[in-house]
Amino acid sequence: MEQTGAQILWECLEREGVEVVFGYPGGAILPAYHALVHSKVRHVLTRHEQGAAHMADGYARASGRVGVVVATSGPGATNLVTGLATAMMDSVPLVAITGQVSSGLLGSDAFQEVDVTGVTLPITKHNYLVQRPEQLAPALREAFALAASGRPGPVLVDIAKDAQLASCELDWEGARPTRHQRHLAPEVPQEQLDQALAMIKASRRPIILAGHGVTLAGASDALLRFAERAGIPVAATLLGLDSFPASHPLFLGFMGMHGSPWTNKAIQEADLILALGMRFDDRVTGDTSKFATHATKIHVEIDRAEVNKIIQVDLALNGDARNVLERLLPAAAPLPTGPWLEQLEAMKGPHGAEQAAPWPPTRDNGALGPIEVLRALFEQAPDAIWVTDVGQHQMWQAQVMRHSKPRTLITSGGLGTMGFSLPAAIGAKLARPEAEVWVVAGDGGIQMNSQELMTLVQEGLKINVAVVNNGTLGMVRQWQTLFYDDRRSEVAMANPDFVRLAEAYGLKGRRATTLDQAEAVIREARTRPEPMLIDFVVDPEASVFPIIPPGARLDDMMHDPSAPSPSR
Ligand SMILES: Cc1cc2nc3c(=O)[nH]c(=O)nc-3n(C[C@H](O)[C@H](O)[C@H](O)COP(=O)(O)OP(=O)(O)OC[C@H]3O[C@@H](n4cnc5c(N)ncnc54)[C@H](O)[C@@H]3O)c2cc1C
Ligand SMILES: Cc1ncc(C[n+]2csc(CCOP(=O)(O)OP(=O)(O)O)c2C)c(N)n1
Ligand SMILES: [Mg+2]
């Protein structure tokens, strides 16, 4: 039976197991929206295509499944660009479907024509321009396979309007994907595993660096068993923070620019580094020429292009982190790491309960301390999914909260996209309806996609939104304070009344200016059935410490000059 390209599109999505897509209609994608009415796929109408892309991203990060976003040609498609780049940087599996002008008009500057495959070439894993209905199923099946296989990432399928309108028979079997096989995880040879085991066995001060790839590989359980069996402490990148239980005695905490001093120091003093699914981002290494110079380095990494890109390693295990760990496990034996673990415990001192050491919790000026707000949130909702925006509040969240399960921290790490959190949280809630979901955003970032509050209400989602409102672009202000003579250039922001803004959209709005109020409104937000936005009015002068100054060594951290001397 012949079907239109538009009908084939939705049937392919259904066969791929897609339950929900996030999108926004327009001229060149109208045939697809016409056919959508007969599809079982749920469509979430957003208020901006950027929001739709981040929702698909949040959906994917919370579930491990491929997120799907739909947009029209021209401005619809260009509005996806930031969302695609965000997903690309953090290895998130997405399929973006865009309408395109009819094939006969391509290249003519037709109404709402943009060369979307050209624009998105560097920010997608692959992309397709479909000009005939017969090309649709092969392109879509391959797009899903590519997005999810090997190192995940976004794939875009641009569909000319005439290909949506014309008809053909759907040949599902004939559209079986093959190209993704080149991206599948290579099998690590046994000799290399044996080499790794010998290196590990010879070490006395080993450390595991757990990254996002641990979660992507579903390797958290294997990591826990391996670390426990061998007695190796585990440090985490921002995107790896939820890959290992933070309350575990072997957990060393957050590494890198705003990580804890003992974690960074441990990396510098280690004699062996086992880096798992992390890509040595510059926020993680500090000065690369002085990074962990005493350590033998093993890198378990699925993407060969990441090996020896930033840090030269002694042994690369090019493959899947879970596969590698599960194959290492049977031969792993307890190492004599007792003295090393004792040394690390002593370095942590009394602050070891948190990922990092943000001293002091509150400046002594009577203002509500942002760190106290993050602590109060975490104390009341330790098992929630935390979806953070970008800036100081993002770093305090990472320092303070202690995740116990994978996929409970969703944040834009590599691109650092302000405006990410609210839409990503909507996607996360749709992926995990049973989970408690919180947004933690700055006053700047929440205004970058605040229109999605309406999507949240229209979809009837219970998500709470914490705005850490310091009345400023805090992270930029902090860099101006510390590294640009405290000259404050374009960082003070006039904000809307966030409580009334929330209420205009149909959420409950509350404000907290003291810790008592903060604790009470968090309690209220958690017990009310409807979504709530809380405006936490916090100290505008607080900075995130410790911090590695630009260009400095990993363990050459700057501490809060006003803080009491910590156990560094
Ligand atoms: C304001 C700000 C401050 C920041 N400060 C810090 C900081 O102090 N510390 C910090 O850590 N980060 C910080 N970041 C985040 C940082 O920029 C990076 O995003 C982060 O360090 C990347 O972590 P990652 O390498 O674990 O994850 P990714 O960048 O997602 O890399 C994952 C790696 O795992 C690989 N992989 C994927 N799947 C598998 C698999 N199945 N098996 C094996 N490998 C796999 C991928 O190929 C990739 O190389 C900050 C970000 C912002 C916005
Ligand atoms: C889209 C985008 N534009 C600019 C930046 C640069 N930037 C990084 S943090 C930051 C300030 C964020 O301010 P706010 O959302 O209020 O959070 P705070 O740092 O105050 O917690 C800016 C402007 C960015 N990361 N993303
Ligand atoms: Mg702010």
Give an overview of the whole structure.
With 568 residues, this protein is of the alpha/beta class. Helix content is 36%, strand content 17%. It contains 23 helices and 20 strands. Thiamine diphosphate binds at residues 389-393, 416-418, 442-445, 468, 470, 472-476.
The residue ranges in which pLDDT falls below 50 over 5 or more consecutive positions are none
Number of strands: 20
> What hetero molecules are bound to the protein chains?
flavin-adenine dinucleotide, thiamine diphosphate, magnesium ion
Let me know the largest β-sheet. Answer: 6 strands, parallel
Q: Specify the number of helices.
A: 23
Strand order of the largest sheet: 3-2-4-5-7-6
Mean pLDDT: 96
What structural class do the secondary elements suggest? alpha/beta
The rough form would be described as globular
Into which percentage range does the β-strand content fall? 15-25%
Bin the helical content: 25-40%
What would you report as the Rg, rounded to the nearest angstrom? 24 Å
Terminus-to-terminus distance: 71 Å
Describe what is shown at a glance:
The protein is an alpha/beta fold and 568 residues long. The model has no long low-confidence stretch (mean pLDDT 96).
